[in-house]
Design brief:
globular, mainly alpha, about 280 residues
Length: about 280
């Protein structure tokens, strides 16, 4: 893998991980269509994949460090309350309730774990990824036309968190955008748009961290090709910077109004990827 290719993959990861257009779908399409046609030589490195995801974690921390700091402080206070028998008291403390809701929303991912191998195999089926991108666009289009919700961390319920968590579990399917699917689910449950975006990105901290841990366990013992580290570092830097900018861009779009324009992009890429794949396969 060259530095240029690593930068391309980092750019795709950073932009598509947070904008509702599916990073896994775009990376898989790059590997299958461009790589398969000989237009681009891509290296399927588990270590590089881990580094890209770590970069996106850093981007979320940089964008939401105040929320994250407040939750860390609240974790200590919550432990003290539990030790002294005062209970969770989540209703009175927004940061504490946010922790509780994020944990609840992460639970549905455990249902997906037994199906990881089957889901990974879908990365090799570009027409399926294209169809999933079309579905992502449809979800965004519908969500964008729902009445604006008013729920925030104080008023959201456990059911809201579970529904958003189930959406996140489904979004492990390549082509279904994690951010798009979870934001759409949040809007469908009546969350305020800006809060739906915030909750989705904070929820990614737990899910992506868990995925990284599982990947690290898989690659332990495989060794590291030190010659590729400069390229990996560039890819990681590009993913982190573009990821942070993508978060800020989506926040600005949501503040100004609709973000359903991403639906048209997903439809376009989905249809084109299907047509290109069948043309190459013909």
């Amino acid at each position: 893998m060259t530095i240029v290719y690593a930068a391309i993959l980092g750019l795709v990861q950073g932009v598509a991980e947070f904008l509702p257009i599916s990073s896994s779908g775009h990376l898989a399409l790059l590997e299958n269509i461009l790589g398969g046609s000989g237009l681009l030589e891509l290296d399927d490195s588990a270590l590089f994949n881990i580094m890209l995801h770590l970069a996106t974690l850093v981007a979320v921390v940089a964008a939401y460090w105040r929320d994250i700091a407040a939750m860390f402080v609240e974790l200590g206070a919550m432990g003290g309350d539990l030790v002294h028998g005062r209970g969770l008291a989540v209703r009175e403390r927004p940061a504490r309730k946010m922790i509780y809701m994020l944990i609840v929303a992460t639970l549905p991912l455990f249902i997906i774990v037994p199906f990881n191998d089957a889901i990974e195999s879908l990365n090799e089926i570009p027409w399926f990824i294209g169809a999933a991108l079309i579905l992502t666009g449809t979800l965004l289009y519908i969500a964008d036309r729902l009445p604006k919700g008013e729920k925030n961390v104080k008023t959201m319920t456990v059911v809201d968190a579970l529904v958003i968590g189930l959406a996140q579990g489904l979004a492990t399917i390549p082509g279904l955008s994690r951010s798009g699917t979870t934001i759409a689910a949040g809007m469908g449950r009546g969350l305020k748009r800006s809060f739906a975006v915030r909750f989705s990105f904070l929820m990614s901290l737990l899910s992506v961290a868990g995925a990284v841990i599982l990947q690290v366990l898989d690659v332990i013992g495989e060794g590291v090709d030190t010659a590729l580290l400069p390229a990996y570092g560039v890819g990681m830097l590009v993913a982190g910077v573009t990821g942070y900018l993508s978060i800020r861009l989506l926040q600005a779009i949501v503040r100004k109004g609709r973000f359903g324009g991403f639906a048209y992009y997903c439809w376009f890429v989905g249809v084109v990827s299907i047509l290109v794949w069948f043309r190459l396969g013909a």
